[in-house]
């Protein structure tokens, strides 16, 4: 009698080609990627090979309530210095503008920032001026700005 041999066709994320892994990662949000990366050293190394160019923590991806200053600082140190072009933190109530500013200033390739409804208050003109002066690559900036009490010279 012929014996049927079941072949194991399950592939681990660690063994996938970079192109396949990139395809899998494209279907995961940033927080899901981080969760997978926390599983083991091998997955962290695999994800590091094929980092995303977008960090999406805002309302659109449904993880805005989970985004914290600590998480954004970790992302800045481990991911954002390596080619991130888009940072979306819109509607993240637990993120401070100081943490976003540090992350953006540590991202030399950042082209677009969406930081509306962040941390419960608007950006001041001074905060935005500092941000724009330090990140020369920034082409698109979406924020809400508080102008009450700002000088006329600052608003120009």
UniProtKB/TrEMBL annotation:
<protein>
    <recommendedName>
        <fullName>F-box domain-containing protein</fullName>
    </recommendedName>
</protein>
<feature type="domain" description="F-box">
    <location>
        <begin position="14"/>
        <end position="50"/>
    </location>
</feature>
<dbReference type="Pfam" id="PF00646">
    <property type="entry name" value="F-box"/>
</dbReference>
<dbReference type="InterPro" id="IPR036047">
    <property type="entry name" value="F-box-like_dom_sf"/>
</dbReference>
<dbReference type="InterPro" id="IPR001810">
    <property type="entry name" value="F-box_dom"/>
</dbReference>
């Amino acid at each position: 009698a012929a014996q049927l041999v079941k072949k194991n066709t399950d592939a681990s994320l660690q063994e996938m080609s970079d192109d396949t892994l990139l395809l899998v990662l494209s279907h995961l949000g940033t927080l899901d990627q981080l969760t997978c990366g926390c599983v083991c050293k091998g997955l962290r190394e695999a994800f590091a090979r094929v980092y995303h160019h977008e960090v999406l923590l805002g309302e659109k991806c449904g993880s805005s309530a989970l985004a914290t200053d600590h998480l954004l600082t970790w992302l800045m140190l481990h991911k954002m210095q390596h080619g991130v072009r888009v940072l979306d933190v819109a509607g993240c109530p637990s993120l401070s503008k100081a943490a976003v500013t540090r992350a953006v200033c540590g991202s030399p390739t950042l082209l677009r920032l969406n930081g509306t409804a962040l941390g419960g208050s608007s950006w001041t003109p001074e905060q935005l001026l500092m941000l724009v002066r330090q990140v020369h690559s920034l082409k698109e900036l979406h924020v809400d700005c508080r102008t009450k009490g700002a000088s006329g010279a600052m608003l120009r």
